């Protein structure tokens, strides 16, 4: 099925925004001005964007601690995200969550998550809400190959099947759980795991937006039409360390360089858009420039934004005591 | 008004709230009871203690959901559902099983609102049985309310009677924060007058079940009944006691505890949870900090020893607080004095 020009432009912009956001964080983190832990999504942009291009605002996603890409793809405000990562009061979580806990329920973004395997059970619940409230919504859990070995994930595959939930389990397999290879840590295959729960399985090349988009469309349509949960296995490569500051001594010397050369989702998007005359490349150049401005403004605004105050410390532990 | 058991009071609270609010859903192991299998006799159990019996028949499978024996997934699902528009009441069966799903409670549900800058509501209730006295041994007998009380973002309810259970559970379901609701497994057949209509009991407001001049006894959950029994015996011996049931360990009615201690000058705390870092410690610290000058004698704690809950009846009896131990503690504080100032 042809993807609309509007969707293509929006998706390219989202991927470019994630890339620029993360590359800028990589540079800013090195200055020491960003507190805490930051886990970058560079190289994986087509996964979040290809999946979320098939979702509506009322659909729900849960993310991981590599969550910036999912947030941007689901429509969370970029300026608010940047301010959050800088710990400012104007952040999307008012400076109380930080990089690992960015969430915006009004956008159907149930949160990045500091706990590996934290998202899949939550997504069973979000899918249950969609089902009980009969709003035709779908819930999507993004989780890594590392989280695929958590009991919470395996239990959720079972529960989603038992409850016949409108849920999609997106395994973002970048080959490493922290520094340990998936080839070591994951017994069997993701495909066989899905089969073990009687769950349909799809897989795709996560550096190809079009491949992710089409696979995700089929997976999400399946779940939305009441046929139960699906697993979508996305093969990816991450371009930076597990966290910023990780020198990636566990990776082959040319591994990342090759990934950047051969598996750049933005380059492959531009190439295909040009070859198939889907879009005018000058429109993409304009997006690149606009995104660069947006990220620059977001960083400057974040750096100048006010810090949270003493009264914020005790606020919002409870709705009401 | 009619006499109802603790079990019936909870069932009635669930039924009335499910009728009132279509977003209230139940989930847990065997809460529907009898799904699947070769015979498929539905609504056979209603949970292992029959608390939810009949609810499947009235509300159907979309709102009364049996779960696999898979606590991490369904307690996490309850948290996710609560954050996205439902009011789930999840039954954890024995509170000891929290070991299988603490992340979903401690790191997820409890923290959403704060981590997300006040933009989440998580109206979740987790019901679970607690307590020793049933020969259920070390993995089915703990009183873990201090563990939950320790976690910011949770409210913790420990009802002491059928009347209290119904009003506090309705309050819990209507509350917009995650609530841990702990039912003492020895109390399910306790009976008292319980109104037929729905009513709520606010959190953080202690109940005085006895009022006296000499000693304040703070008791939690099942311990309230034992404290009342001890107080009645002591009254015949000329010692008059206030018995204070906090009802909720968070929020804790600090003001009423302090007022009672100011009035009586003596404090005994009865807590059946393990003695290190339990509610008796917490309340002792509160009084030591804020009512030290009112104390006529050292605070006494009636608590179990720092051991797992034993199985065998004589050992379990030794382990548990009871009315005799409370009576002895009250008499001891009546004999003691704080150090005389020379």
Automatic annotation (TrEMBL), chain A:
The protein's required cofactors: thiamine diphosphate
Gene3D superfamilies (UniProt xref): 3.40.50.970
Signal peptide residues on this chain, from the entry's feature table: none
One Pfam family, short name: E1_dh
Example GO biological process: pyruvate decarboxylation to acetyl-CoA
Keywords, alphabetical: Oxidoreductase, Thiamine pyrophosphate
Reaction catalysed by this enzyme: N(6)-[(R)-lipoyl]-L-lysyl-[protein] + pyruvate + H(+) = N(6)-[(R)-S(8)-acetyldihydrolipoyl]-L-lysyl-[protein] + CO2
CDD domains tied to this protein: TPP_E1_PDC_ADC_BCADC
The Dehydrogenase E1 component domain, residue ranges: 14-309
Gene Ontology molecular function terms on file: pyruvate dehydrogenase (acetyl-transferring) activity
UniProt-listed InterPro entries: DH_E1, PDH_E1_Alpha_Subunit, THDP-binding
PANTHER family named among the record's database cross-references: PYRUVATE DEHYDROGENASE E1 COMPONENT SUBUNIT ALPHA, PYRUVATE DEHYDROGENASE E1 COMPONENT, ALPHA SUBUNIT BACTERIAL AND ORGANELLAR
Function: The pyruvate dehydrogenase complex catalyzes the overall conversion of pyruvate to acetyl-CoA and CO(2). It contains multiple copies of three enzymatic components: pyruvate dehydrogenase (E1), dihydrolipoamide acetyltransferase (E2) and lipoamide dehydrogenase (E3).
Protein name as it appears in the record: ABC transporter substrate-binding protein
Automatic annotation (TrEMBL), chain B:
One Gene Ontology MF term: oxidoreductase activity
Pfam families: Transket_pyr, Transketolase_C
Keyword Membrane appears in the UniProt entry: no
Keyword Lipid metabolism assigned: no
InterPro entries the UniProt entry points to: THDP-binding (IPR029061), Transketo_C/PFOR_II (IPR009014), Transketolase-like_Pyr-bd (IPR005475), Transketolase_C (IPR033248)
Keywords linked to the UniProt accession: Oxidoreductase, Pyruvate
Protein name per UniProt: Pyruvate dehydrogenase
């Amino acid at each position: 099925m042809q993807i609309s020009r509007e969707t293509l432009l929006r998706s390219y912009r989202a991927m470019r925004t994630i890339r620029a956001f993360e590359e800028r964080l990589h540079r800013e983190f090195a200055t020491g001005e960003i507190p805490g832990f930051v886990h970058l999504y560079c190289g994986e942009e087509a996964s979040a964007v290809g999946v979320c291009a098939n979702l509506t605002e009322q659909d729900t996603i849960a993310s991981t601690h590599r969550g910036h890409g999912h947030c941007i793809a689901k429509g969370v405000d970029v300026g608010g995200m940047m301010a959050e990562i800088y710990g400012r009061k104007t952040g999307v979580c008012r400076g109380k969550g930080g990089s690992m806990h960015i969430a915006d329920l009004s956008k159907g973004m149930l949160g990045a998550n500091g706990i590996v395997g934290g998202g899949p059970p939550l997504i069973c619940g979000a899918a249950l809400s969609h089902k009980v409230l009969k709003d035709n919504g779908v819930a999507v859990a993004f989780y890594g190959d590392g989280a695929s070995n958590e009991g919470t994930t395996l239990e959720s595959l079972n529960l989603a099947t038992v409850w016949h939930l409108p849920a999609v389990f997106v395994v973002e397999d970048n080959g490493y759980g922290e520094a340990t290879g998936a080839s070591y840590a994951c017994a069997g295959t993701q495909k066989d795991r899905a089969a073990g729960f009687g769950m349909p399985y799809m897989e795709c090349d996560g550096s190809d937006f079009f491949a992710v988009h089409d696979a995700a469309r089929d997976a999400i349509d399946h779940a939305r039409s009441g046929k139960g949960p699906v697993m979508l296995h996305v093969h990816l490569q991450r371009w930076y360390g597990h966290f910023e500051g990780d020198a990636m001594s566990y990776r082959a010397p040319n591994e990342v360089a090759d990934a950047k050369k051969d598996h750049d989702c933005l380059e492959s998007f531009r190439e295909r858009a040009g070859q198939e005359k889907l879009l005018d490349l000058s429109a993409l150049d304009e997006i690149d420039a606009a995104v660069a401005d947006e990220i620059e403004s977001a960083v400057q605004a974040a750096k100048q934004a006010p810090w949270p105050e003493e009264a914020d410390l005790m606020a919002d532990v409870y709705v009401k005591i | 008004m009619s006499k109802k058991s603790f079990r019936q009071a909870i069932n009635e609270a669930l039924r009335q709230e499910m009728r009132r609010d279509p977003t209230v859903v139940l989930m847990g192991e065997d809460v529907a009871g009898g799904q699947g299998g070769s015979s498929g006799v539905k609504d056979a159990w209603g949970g292992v203690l029959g608390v939810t019996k009949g609810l499947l028949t009235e509300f159907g499978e979309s709102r009364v959901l049996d779960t696999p024996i898979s606590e991490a997934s369904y307690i996490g699902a309850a948290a996710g559902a609560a954050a996205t528009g439902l009011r789930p009441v999840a039954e954890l069966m024995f509170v000891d099983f929290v070991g299988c799903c603490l992340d979903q409670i401690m790191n997820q549900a409890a923290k959403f609102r704060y981590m997300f800058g006040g933009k989440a509501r998580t109206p979740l209730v987790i019901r679970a049985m607690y307590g020793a006295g049933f020969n259920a041994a070390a993995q089915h007998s703990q009183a873990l309310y201090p563990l939950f009380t320790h976690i910011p973002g949770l409210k913790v309810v420990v009802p002491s009677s059928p009347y209290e259970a119904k009003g506090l559970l309705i309050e819990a379901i209507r509350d917009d924060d995650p609530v841990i609701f702990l039912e003492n497994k020895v109390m399910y057949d306790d009976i008292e007058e319980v109104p037929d209509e729905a009513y709520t009991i606010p959190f953080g407001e202690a109940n005085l079940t006895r009022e006296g001049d000499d000693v304040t006894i703070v008791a939690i959950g099942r311990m309230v009944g034992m404290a009342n029994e001890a107080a009645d015996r002591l009254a015949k011996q000329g010692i008059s006691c206030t018995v204070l049931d906090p009802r909720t360990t968070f929020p804790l009615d600090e003001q009423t505890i302090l007022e009672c201690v100011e009035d009586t000058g003596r404090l005994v705390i009865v807590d059946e949870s393990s003695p290190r870092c339990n509610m008796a410690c917490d309340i002792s610290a509160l009084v030591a900090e804020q009512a030290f000058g009112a104390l006529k004698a050292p605070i006494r704690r009636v608590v179990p020893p720092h051991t797992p809950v034993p199985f065998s009846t004589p050992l379990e009896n030794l382990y548990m607080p009871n009315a005799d131990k409370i009576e002895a503690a009250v008499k001891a504080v009546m004999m003691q004095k704080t150090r005389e100032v020379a």
